[in-house]
Design brief:
heterodimer, A: alpha/beta, Alpha-Beta Plaits, 2 domains, 10 helices, B: 484 residues, 20 helices
Chain lengths: 309, 484
C-alpha cells in the first residue's frame, strides 16, 4: 500500500498560540481515516496545512507524493467546515464549475454533475437556484462539488454537521463509495459514532496534540471494558469476582420493596468478562440484569485525553 | 490561467444574468437624457411670462425696455442657431453664424444658418422669449404713485384675476436716480430684475450724457468702439482660441470624470462580490481549488469585463446619439480623440486605475463578512478618491498649476489628474514619469493585496482594521495571519 498523506512533526503556531504541536501521522491510499477531536483541537488548522492554504511553522507534509498540495490541487477534493456555495447558481452549474476548476472539461463536468445529482436524488432540483434548496440538499451539492472531479484524496471537514440522520446515512454511503473506488478519505468530526461506522483508522486530537493514531480496536483497547450488574448485590461481592479492577455504584433502585443496586465493574485489561460473570452466578449472587459493555470510541477518547467531547 | 479565466467567466455571467445589470445599463442613459432634456422640456411647456411696466418716472422708458428685451431675444435666437449649426456642421459653422449676427444682425445670421446647415435650419424652432411686455391692467395703469400701483397690482399677481400677469415693474424717479419695484408672482430668485436694472442703468447714463451735451452719434460711436478682446494662445490652431481649441480640454475633463465614475463603479461591484464570497464561505472553497493570484485575477478580470461591457454599451449608445443629433461635432470629436491621443490615454489610465483600486478593494473585501464592515474601511478610501475630484475641474482652466502638477505624480491620483491634463499637452517626461510611477505602484499594490487577500480569505473573525494591517505586514515577511 502507498501512502497518500503523510505528516511529519508538523507544528503550527500563531504568535504565542500553538494550534498544532508536533503532529505526525500517515494515511494509506484507499483508507478512510477519521480525524477526531473536540472544537479547538487543531483539526481545521491541520487540514488547511495539508491543503497548502497555510504553511506549517515546523515539520513537513507530503500529499499524493508531493510536499506542496497546491501542485496536486486537481487530485484533491475538499469540503470545508463552513459550507460555501454560490447561492444564485444552480446545483448543476455549481458542481460543474468546481469540477472545471479541477481540470474536468466543461462537457464532462456537466455530465458528471447531472449524474451525481440524479444518483443522490437531487435530479429534480438540479436547475433550481441553490438558495431555494434545503440545508441538507445544499450540503449534498457542496459535497458533490468536492468530489465530482473524482479526486484521489478527499478531505472533509466536519461533513456531518447540520445534517439530519437520513442525510447523514446518505453521506456515509457516499464516503464508503469513494473509498471503494480507491480514493483516500480524511474526514474530521467530533461525532465519534460516524467515525466508528466508517473509519479504517482514526487520529485523535486534543489541544493541538495527537493523542492516538491507529485502528478502531486499538483505540477502544485504551478504554476499560465494563461489567454492569444489577440486583440485590453488595459492592464487596462484586469486587471479589475474578478480573475486576474496581466497582462503582451506578444507580440505586428500590423495586418490589427490595434494595436493588446497579454496579459498574471495571475489568482489568487482560480479564475475561465471561469468567467474572460465570463466577458471579456460581457464587449465587442475586443478579437480575447483567451487561458486558465493550468501550466505544467516545470512551476511548475520554480515556486517552481525559477530555469530554 | 485556465482557472483564472473560469473564475472570471463565472463572475461575469453572474452579473450579466441579473435584471439589475440590464436596468443599470438602461438607467444611466435615461437619467442623463432626462437631465439634458429637462430644461428644454420645462421651458417649452411653460408659457412665456408676461410683464407689465408701470412707468411713473415720466421718462417714457417702456419703449427702451421693450427694445432691449427684443435685442436680448435676438441674441438668444442667434446663439441657439449657432449651437444647432455646431452640432450639425461643426464648430466653424456656429462661429460663422455668430460672426454674421455680430456684424449684420439676426437676418444675416438666419441666412448664414440656412446656408451652412439647411437641414437643421428647416426644423429649427427658436427659443421662446424670456418675457413678453404687456400693457398694465386698467386700475394699475391709472395709479399715480408706486404704493397705489403696487396695491392695484397685487390681486393680478395673486391669481385673484385671470390676468395671466407674472411680473410687474413699477418705475419711479427722483432727482438722483431711477428705482424699480419689481413685483413677481413667485418668491423664488428672479433674473429679470437684474436685466431690468442693467437696461435702466444704461438708459439713465445715456440720458444724463445727452443732457451734458454728448451727442447721440458720439454715444453710438463709443458703444460700437467698445474694445474687442481676442483670446490667443500658442496652443490654439488658428489666429484666435476657438471652441475647437477648447474642446480637447473639455473632452479630457469629461473623460477624466467618466474614468473616475467607471473605476469607482467597477471596484464597488468587485468589493461587494468579494464580501459576498467571503460571507458565504465560497472563498475558502476557491482557495482549495485555485491560487490566490488566480482567484483575485479572475474576480478582477470578471468584474472588469462587466464594467467595460457597460462602458462599451454606453459608449456605443452615446456615439449613435451623437452621430444622429450632432454629426457636425462627431467629426471634430474623433479628430480630437485621435490627434491628442485622448482615447489611448483613456485606455491606459482606465486599465491602470482600475487595477490599482481593484486590488485594494479586493483585499479589503476579503477581510469583511458584511458590506457594513467593508464600508468602515472603504470610507477613508473614498475620502482619498475625492481629492482628484476637487482638483479636476481646476485643471480645465489651470492645467499647469503647481498643485495639479504635483497631484499627477501621486500614483493613486495619476489616472484622473493626467487624463484631465492630457489634452493640454503635458511634457513627455511628465507623461512617462507619472506613467512609470503608476505602473510601479500597481505592482506593489498587486503584491501587497495578494498577501492581504490570502490572509483575509482564511480569517473568520470579525473585521479588525488592525488585523488587515497585520495581515499585510505578515505577508511582507512571509508569515501568514491566524485563521479562526
Amino acid at each position: 500500500m502507498t501512502t497518500a498523506l503523510s505528516l511529519n512533526g508538523v507544528t503550527k503556531r500563531y504568535g504565542d498560540f500553538t494550534a498544532v504541536q508536533s503532529l505526525s501521522f500517515g494515511v494509506e491510499t484507499g483508507q478512510i481515516c477519521g480525524f477526531l477531536g473536540p472544537n479547538g483541537a487543531g483539526k481545521t488548522s491541520t487540514i488547511r496545512m495539508i491543503l497548502g492554504l497555510v504553511e506549517p511553522t515546523e515539520g513537513s507534509i507530503e500529499v499524493l507524493g508531493t510536499n506542496d498540495a497546491r501542485k496536486v490541487r486537481e487530485r484533491i477534493g475538499f469540503l470545508p467546515e463552513e459550507r460555501g456555495l454560490y447561492k444564485r447558481m444552480t446545483p448543476v452549474d455549481a458542481i460543474a464549475f468546481f469540477a472545471g476548476l479541477k481540470g474536468v472539461s466543461d462537457r464532462e463536468a456537466r455530465r458528471r454533475a447531472k449524474q451525481l445529482l440524479e444518483e443522490q436524488g437531487l435530479g429534480a432540483a438540479m436547475n433550481r437556484p441553490i438558495k431555494a434548496l434545503s440545508k441538507g440538499m445544499s450540503q449534498k451539492v457542496q459535497l458533490l462539488s468536492a468530489i465530482a472531479h473524482e479526486p484521489d484524496l478527499v478531505i472533509l471537514d466536519e461533513p456531518f454537521s447540520g445534517l439530519d440522520p437520513v442525510n447523514q446515512q446518505s453521506l456515509e454511503a457516499i464516503i464508503r463509495g469513494l473509498a471503494a473506488k480507491g480514493s483516500t478519505v480524511l474526514f474530521s468530526t467530533h461525532v465519534m459514532q460516524h467515525a466508528e461506522r466508517l473509519c479504517d483508522r482514526v487520529v485523535l486530537m486534543a489541544r493541538g496534540r495527537k493523542m492516538f493514531d491507529g485502528d478502531l480496536s486499538d483505540a477502544r483497547s485504551h478504554a476499560p471494558r465494563l461489567l454492569v450488574l444489577e440486583g440485590n448485590i453488595s459492592l464487596a461481592a462484586v469486587q471479589a469476582l475474578p478480573g475486576i479492577e474496581r466497582v462503582e455504584v451506578a444507580a440505586l433502585n428500590d423495586q418490589d420493596g427490595t434494595d436493588q443496586v446497579q454496579l459498574s465493574a471495571t475489568l482489568k485489561p487482560s480479564a475475561n468478562g465471561q469468567e467474572a460473570l460465570r463466577a458471579a452466578f456460581t457464587q449465587g449472587l442475586d443478579i437480575r440484569r447483567f451487561e458486558l459493555k465493550e468501550p466505544s470510541l467516545h470512551d476511548a477518547f475520554i480515556a486517552l485525553t481525559g477530555d469530554q467531547i | 490561467m485556465r482557472r483564472l479565466l473560469k473564475i472570471a467567466l463565472r463572475e461575469y455571467l453572474s452579473y450579466v444574468r441579473t435584471v439589475g445589470f440590464w436596468l443599470s445599463i438602461a438607467g444611466l442613459p435615461v437619467i442623463m437624457g432626462l437631465a439634458i432634456m429637462a430644461p428644454t422640456l420645462v421651458a417649452r411647456s411653460a408659457p412665456t411670462p408676461n410683464m407689465a411696466i408701470i412707468d411713473l418716472s415720466g421718462r417714457n422708458l417702456t419703449p427702451v425696455i421693450i427694445k432691449e428685451f427684443e435685442r436680448q431675444q435676438n441674441v438668444r435666437v442667434a446663439k441657439a442657431m449657432a449651437a444647432a449649426a455646431t452640432a450639425a456642421a461643426g464648430p466653424k459653422a456656429g462661429e460663422a453664424i455668430m460672426a454674421s449676427f455680430d456684424s449684420q444682425g439676426l437676418k444675416a445670421a438666419e441666412a448664414s444658418f440656412t446656408s451652412l446647415a439647411p437641414k437643421v435650419a428647416g426644423a429649427f424652432k427658436a427659443p421662446s422669449a424670456e418675457v413678453q411686455i404687456v400693457p398694465a391692467p386698467g386700475p394699475v395703469a391709472a395709479a399715480t404713485s408706486a404704493e397705489a400701483a403696487g396695491k392695484a397690482l397685487k390681486p393680478y399677481l395673486a391669481d385673484e384675476t385671470a390676468s395671466g400677469l407674472t411680473y410687474g415693474a413699477i418705475i419711479t424717479a427722483d432727482t438722483k436716480a431711477l428705482s424699480v419695484d419689481f413685483w413677481s408672482r413667485n418668491i423664488g430668485p428672479q433674473t429679470l430684475d437684474d436685466s431690468l436694472k442693467d437696461i435702466l442703468r444704461d438708459e439713465d447714463r445715456r440720458m444724463r450724457l445727452t443732457q451734458a451735451g454728448v451727442s447721440d452719434a458720439l454715444l453710438k460711436d463709443i458703444d460700437t468702439a467698445a474694445p474687442s478682446v481676442r483670446l490667443r494662445s500658442p496652443k490654439s490652431q488658428g489666429d484666435q482660441v476657438s471652441l475647437r481649441d477648447r474642446l480637447p480640454t473639455v473632452i479630457g475633463f469629461v473623460m477624466a470624470m467618466g474614468l473616475w465614475t467607471v473605476i469607482l463603479s467597477g471596484v464597488g461591484i468587485l468589493l461587494n462580490s468579494v464580501v459576498e464570497d467571503k460571507s458565504s464561505r465560497v472563498l475558502e472553497v476557491l482557495l482549495a481549488s485555485a491560487s490566490t493570484t488566480e482567484i483575485m485575477g479572475g474576480k478582477i478580470l470578471g468584474v472588469a469585463a462587466v464594467t467595460f461591457s457597460v462602458l462599451g454599451i454606453w459608449l456605443t449608445l452615446g456615439t449613435a446619439m451623437l452621430l444622429t443629433s450632432a454629426p457636425g461635432l462627431s467629426e471634430d470629436l474623433v479628430a480630437i480623440l485621435a490627434s491628442k491621443g485622448l482615447a489611448y490615454y483613456f485606455g491606459f489610465y482606465l486599465v491602470g486605475g482600475y487595477l490599482m483600486y481593484a486590488c485594494v478593494f479586493t483585499a479589503i473585501g476579503a477581510f469583511c463578512e458584511t458590506t457594513r464592515e467593508a464600508q468602515t474601511l472603504v470610507g477613508p478610501m473614498m475620502l482619498v478618491l475625492s481629492i482628484p475630484m476637487i482638483f479636476m475641474s481646476q485643471s480645465i482652466t489651470h492645467p499647469d498649476m503647481p498643485i495639479i502638477k504635483v497631484l499627477c505624480w501621486v500614483p493613486p491620483f495619476t489616472p484622473f489628474m493626467m487624463m484631465v491634463r492630457a489634452a493640454s499637452g503635458p511634457t513627455l517626461w511628465e507623461l512617462v514619469g507619472t506613467g512609470l510611477g503608476m505602473i510601479a505602484f500597481i505592482a506593489v499594490t498587486l503584491w501587497l493585496s495578494g498577501k492581504a487577500f490570502r490572509a483575509g480569505a482564511l480569517s473568520t473573525s470579525k473585521l479588525d482594521p488592525k488585523a488587515l494591517i497585520v495581515g499585510v505586514a505578515k505577508g511582507l515577511i512571509g508569515l501568514r495571519s491566524k485563521p479562526a
